[in-house]
Amino acid sequence: MPEDDYDIRGAHEEAVEEHARHHEPLSQRIALFSAVLATLGAIVSFLGGHTQNDALYYKNEAVLMKARASDSWAYYQAEDIKRHLSEAIATLAPASANAGAAYAKKYADRARALRTKAEAYDRKSEDADAESRRALSPHTKLAIAMTFIQVAIALASITALTKRRWLLWGAGGSAAVGVLLSIIAWL
Question: What gap in Å lies between CA 68 and CA 9, rounded to an integer?
Fold first, then answer.
């Protein structure tokens, strides 16, 4: 058959091949764009997780300091009760007034030191709690930024499937919002 020996090409086929040789296909652009977005998403996700870990660390520190403060306050109260008992014994038994007064002074001195220690632990607990809140503050913005990046990846995928270039603009806009929010989170 003579027609099997010849490849007859139409103008349309030649135009498609010429376009493919000189222009980067849309699917390659979308794949590259999606890879960049996935990398940005991984970075934003890591930073969001890091803020949570820092916040948990400081919150644990606040709880530990609060427990130490509670122990110190309890010990302070015990020493103060002992002081009151020593003063009462000195008042009720004049023969042991000197010993009772000495014990009362000893317990009062211990109580003052314990009160100072308990107040210091309370301050440390409050400081650690404030640091926890500060460490967690960028997390919400990073979570929203990650959502916008994921929407951008989804729009890019839909663009690849439907070949609707205007969706790629939406993906770019969503990605820009995500990147902007992640930058704002650290300012």
Answer: 86
- pTM, two decimal places: 0.67
The Cβ of residue 176 has, within 10 Å, a number of other Cβ atoms equal to: 12
For tokens 């000189």, what's the residue? 22
> How confident is the model over 101-140, as pLDDT tens digits?
788 888 888 889 999 999 999 999 999 999 999 999 999 9
Quick check: 183 and 149 in contact, CB under 8 A? no
Q: Domain segments of the chain: what residues?
A: 28-185
Question: Residue 44: enclosing H or E segment and its boundaries?
Answer: helix 26-92
Give the whole-angstrom CA distance, residue 160 versus residue 25: 10
Q: Determine the length of the chain.
A: 187
